[in-house]
């Protein structure tokens, strides 16, 4: 059995995944058009930056939640 709680591992994994997607979106802002062929803002870029902000916010929230869960588990 792992010494880390299951919820911590899930949140940490998702935090890393969303953080990486956020970084990829910063490096390649037209990734939606490239991967799907769908251009929701007609090359305006505003949707892509909103998605970057959302991904990085979700990543930060998950990381903080994972940290809290690990501390609670360590206190027990």
Secondary structure layout:
Layout: H1 6-27, H2 31-36, H3 46-75
Describe this structure in words.
There is one protein chain. By secondary structure, the protein is mainly alpha-helical. It has one domain. The chain is built from three helices and no strands. It has helices at 6-27, 31-36, 46-75. Helix 1 runs antiparallel to helix 3 (46-75). The longest helix has 30 residues, at 46-75. The radius of gyration is 16 Å and the shape is elongated. The two termini are 17 Å apart. The mean pLDDT is 86.
Total strands? 0
Question: What is the count of structural domains?
Answer: 1
Structural class designation: mainly alpha
Radius of gyration: 16 Å
Query: Beta-sheet strand percentage?
Result: under 5%
Largest pleated sheet = none
Principal-axes geometry comes out as elongated
Stretches where pLDDT falls below 50 for ≥5 residues?
A: none
Q: Give me the number of helical elements.
A: 3
- Estimated helix fraction: over 70%
Distance between the termini: 17 Å
Average pLDDT, rounded to a whole number, is: 86
Order of helices and strands: HHH
Summary tags:
3 helices; single chain; 76 residues
Care to give the gist of this entry?
The protein has 76 residues and is mostly helical. It has helices at residues 6-27, 31-36, 46-75. The protein has one domain (8-36, 43-75).
């Amino acid at each position: 059995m792992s010494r880390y709680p299951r919820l911590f591992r899930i949140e940490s994994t998702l935090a890393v995944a969303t953080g990486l997607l956020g970084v990829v979106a910063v490096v390649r802002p037209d990734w939606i058009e490239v991967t799907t062929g769908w251009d929701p803002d007609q090359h305006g870029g505003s949707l892509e930056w909103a998605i970057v902000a959302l991904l990085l916010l979700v990543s930060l929230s998950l990381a903080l939640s994972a940290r809290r869960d690990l501390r609670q588990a360590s206190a027990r």
